[in-house]
Structures are given as C-alpha cells and as structure tokens.
Design a protein that fits this description.
- By secondary structure, the chain is mostly helical.
- The chain is built from 10 helices and 2 strands.
- The relative contact order is 0.15.
C-alpha cells in the first residue's frame, strides 16, 4: 500500500550512466502509474459490485491466488520452503468454500489445507530423507494461509449477506479513504514517524489523516449506502484505520526481513498484488465483524 509520512531518499539502481530516471513521489512510488492502476481497479470493482456482485468472487479469487504465489515465491527465494502447490490450491478452497458453505466451509478448508501442507513438507524430499527446517517452514506456511486466503475469505462472507455487495463496497471505500487521507496528510505534514524501525515513512500525522478521511467516509457510506446508524460508520472507520495500518506494518516487517521492497512487480506504481492487499485483508475481517454484528 502507499506509505504515508516523512520523505525518504530514493536511489535509482541499474540505470545507464546519464540516462534519465523517473522521479518518484515523496511516497517513493511512480504516482501517475499508481493513480492510473488504482482508478482502473477501483472502477472495475465498483461496476462488478453494482451490476454483477457474484463476479466479485472469481475476480477476488484470482487476486488472492496471485498474491499467495507472490508471497510463496519470495519466501522460497529466502530459502523458506513453503509447499506452494497445496498452499495455493488450498488457499483457493478456503476462499471459494465460503460461498456455498459459509464460515464452516472456510474453517474446514483452512484446517484441511494446513494439515496437507504439513504432510507435504514432511515428505517433499522422499521417505528416506528427514526434512530440514520443518517446524519453521510449516509455521510460516500456516501463517501465510491465514494471512492471505483466510482473511480474504471474510470478503466472500460479507458479500453473501443481505445487501452484501454494498457492504463490500463500503469496506473498500473506507480502505481507500484511509489510504488517501494518510497519503495526503503524511506528504504535507508528516514529521513524526510512528514506527521508524519498521516503516520509516509512516507518520502520526498520516495516521491522523487516515482517521479523518475514514471516519467521514464511514459516516457517509454507512448512512447512505447501508441506511444504518451513522455511529456504526464511526466505529467501522476507526477500526479499519487501525487494522489497515497494522496490516501495512506487518507486510513492511516481512519485506524488511526478506530484504525486498515489494512482493511483486505486476502493478505499476504499486508493486505486486500483495502490496495492494496488505491493509485490505485484515479490513475485510473487521468489516465482516462490525457489519454482521451491528447492522
């Protein structure tokens, strides 16, 4: 996700001597490319949710599959041997089975996939060779399964509720409000880093901007789209800013430990699919929890 906060020096690598290098924004991204990709994805999702809500499931499932592959690829580059085939296929089962079977289907698919990955990693070098780093690799595999497909499955559960398409749209609008508010306030006013040891660009001023934009967005969307009590919008707005920020910090720490800037390169100006989902995944769970309980 776009970072917000104090500017950081950007160094260009691999450019030919004297060749012009595109100047990134203060957030360290190619802003025009990032905006074009963001608007394109946003408009596509709005159209899907308004006119063909169930198309959202295969659309999102594709993104989840790519994001899981990106994470698994980066982990294996760091010699963490996560079993990619059962992780990716099982992750799809976790996401899809929420459609016909609800939370029970998600839980069953998660448990079965976790067990399958453990057995796969135990015997991936044959019956006569003991696996190396089995505990570490299986623990990280189960973490990845929970981090990406399991959290994403709550978007499916949210979609299947009454007015589910509007609930998903509400949660996505609030995540965008959090991003935009954090970016604007961080770039303009960011001087006090939140957690410089993890993400030097995140500032308290940016966090405040996220809160303001997200609370306003929550008030408007919950009132106008869901026709519910406006105070639910405040609760949802604050909750999403907190978990979206934590989600971004979690991915930042993972990338820091892996020694990489982005999980992938698929989306110009953003990085990989996972770099767009880091704050949306925990937000999907909190949105389902708040809206299912209070609306």
């Amino acid at each position: 996700m776009p970072a917000y906060g104090t500017p950081e020096t950007i160094h260009a690598h691999g450019a030919a001597a004297g060749a012009p290098v595109p100047v990134p924004s203060k957030a360290g991204r190619n802003l025009p490319a990032a905006l074009a990709v963001g608007f394109g994805l946003g408009l596509s999702l709005i159209a899907i949710l308004l006119f063909a809500p169930l198309v959202f499931i295969p659309f999102a499932a594709t993104g989840i599959g790519v994001a899981t592959w990106e994470v698994a690829k980066r982990l294996r580059e760091a010699d963490v041997l996560v079993p990619r085939i059962p992780l990716i296929l099982g992750g799809q089962a976790v996401f899809w089975l929420g459609w016909p079977f609800g939370a029970e289907g998600v839980l069953a698919a998660f448990a079965f996939t976790a067990l399958t990955c453990m057995v796969w990693r135990l015997f991936d070098h044959g019956m006569r060779t003991a696996p190396r780093n089995f505990l570490r690799d299986t623990a990280i595999t189960v973490f990845t399964l929970a981090w990406v497909p399991l959290l994403a499955s709550f978007a499916t559960l949210l979609l299947l509720e009454e007015d589910g398409n509007l609930r998903v749209l509400t949660f996505m609008i609030l995540v965008v409000c959090s991003d935009v508010g954090g970016y604007v306030a961080g770039v303009l006013f960011g001087k006090h880093p939140m957690v410089p040891s993890i993400s030097p660009k995140k500032s308290w001023e940016g966090f405040g901007g996220s809160l303001v934009f997200s609370v306003i967005g929550g008030l408007l969307t919950v009132t106008l789209l869901l026709e519910a009590n406006s105070m639910i919008g405040v609760v949802l707005g604050v909750g999403l800013v907190v978990v979206a920020t934590v989600g971004d910090l979690i991915e930042s720490q993972i990338k820091r430990e892996l020694g990489i800037k982005d999980m992938g390169t698929l989306l110009p100006g953003h990085g990989g699919i996972m770099d767009r989902l880091d704050s949306m995944l925990p937000s999907a769970f909190v949105s389902w929890l708040v809206l299912s309980t209070l609306v």
